[in-house]
Amino acid sequence: MASPPPSKPVAALYIGLMSGTSLDGVDAVLFDGQAVQGHVHAPFPAALRDELLALNTPGADELHRAALAANGVARSYADVTAQLLEASGTRRDQIAALGAHGQTVRHRPGGFDGYTTQLLNGALLAEQTGIDVVCDFRSRDVAAGGQGAPLVPAFHRAVFGVAGRDVAVLNLGGIANLSLLFADGRTGGFDTGPANCLLDGWIARHQGHAFDADGAWAASGQVLSPLLAALLAAPFFALAPPKSTGRDLFHLDWLDAQLTPGLVPADVQATLLELTARSVADALQAQMPGATTLIACGGGARNGRLMQRLAELLPRVALQSSVAHGLPVDQVEAAAFAWLAQCFQEKRPGNLPAVTGASGLRVLGALHPA
Ligand SMILES: Nc1ncnc2c1ncn2[C@@H]1O[C@H](COP(=O)(O)OP(=O)(O)O)[C@@H](O)[C@H]1O
Ligand SMILES: [Mg+2]
């Protein structure tokens, strides 16, 4: 009797491609299902970054502009994928799939009146890379009544969870999100509010820098208590989870509406940094009062002043960098989208209904085959 032909070995490598609301560009990682085997970061071309930022706000001829920007994101993702394959000595036929987040320009979950938009031409990315592309991870959770965000808590549980301990993971991107890994096995998670998006916007306007390195400019100013109170009065902070947000809510026009004449720009920066630290610390204390450990990742974990204020506001919590747990701060979110692509290929759900509020577990993503 003829034996069946040997089945083709399943490629075990995935690539995760993440570009967050900071708009600092693309992080790409090579992920073997357990660990990151390579990482490349590339900024977006300046004109594409400007257009993606502009597309966060309603404007003229949006459909055409969004389509072209989605092509631009695909081109950037294809470039960084080629760099990653080259740098790691990997062939494209060794990659089972790319998990590609796309660029969020609107995030308004809410059933038939809601949607979430991550710009990326997945068809073009599949065409350019010759690799299966899994993208549009958030829409299915939104269709199931969820927030579509955060999607990283299940990955954080797999990588950072410790049995018997209440551990929280904080991602400081443009927006901040917490994952709550409870000792009893429950997992929570939600966006806490802005992390870097306002800090970046304010220093760009006043100093012409893309970001406030180490929070040094913020540290040179004084926190303005009335402004901080006005900002913390935004209803989003008082909402109970599930909740998620984006630049739709936290943008410079929102800040400008709270400013009074004559404020010193460095003091506003100090206040914005305090807003991030306070909103995270308050949310952690409210939702996980027994937290023993807070693991920070995302670019904001490089902001020494922000880390210092978080540590001061949370004296009973050990604040650690994700790198101490084996994952550098810039690789965690990209690794999560590689992991979500693996979930998709294996037809396993990627969302946690307790986190997003979706009506059930769902396989997340849409496939553009190579
Ligand atoms: N050395 C640093 N000091 C302060 N902030 C930093 C530093 N490095 C990166 N950042 C911040 O991190 C942001 C990028 O973080 P990232 O996790 O990539 O966010 P996103 O997921 O939104 O793209 C930058 O926009 C900047 O605000
Ligand atoms: Mg980024």
UniProtKB/TrEMBL annotation:
Q: Which SUPFAM superfamilies match?
A: Actin-like ATPase domain
* Top-level taxon: Bacteria
Pathway assignment:
Cell wall biogenesis; peptidoglycan recycling; Amino-sugar metabolism; 1,6-anhydro-N-acetylmuramate degradation
Q: Which UniProt keywords apply?
A: ATP-binding, Carbohydrate metabolism, Kinase, Nucleotide-binding, Transferase
This molecule's function is given as: Catalyzes the specific phosphorylation of 1,6-anhydro-N-acetylmuramic acid (anhMurNAc) with the simultaneous cleavage of the 1,6-anhydro ring, generating MurNAc-6-P. Is required for the utilization of anhMurNAc either imported from the medium or derived from its own cell wall murein, and thus plays a role in cell wall recycling.
Binding of ATP occurs at 20-27
Among PANTHER family, the record links this protein to: ANHYDRO-N-ACETYLMURAMIC ACID KINASE
Annotated InterPro entries: Anhydro_N_Ac-Mur_kinase, ATPase_NBD
Question: What does the record give as EC number?
Answer: 2.7.1.170
Question: Upper lineage ranks?
Answer: Bacteria, Pseudomonadati, Pseudomonadota, Betaproteobacteria, Burkholderiales
Under the GO molecular function aspect, what terms does this record hold? kinase activity
Listed under catalytic activity are: 1,6-anhydro-N-acetyl-beta-muramate + ATP + H2O = N-acetyl-D-muramate 6-phosphate + ADP + H(+)
**Protein name listed in UniProt:** Anhydro-N-acetylmuramic acid kinase
Q: Which residues form a coiled coil?
A: none
Organism this protein belongs to: Pelomonas dachongensis
Protein family membership:
Belongs to the anhydro-N-acetylmuramic acid kinase family.
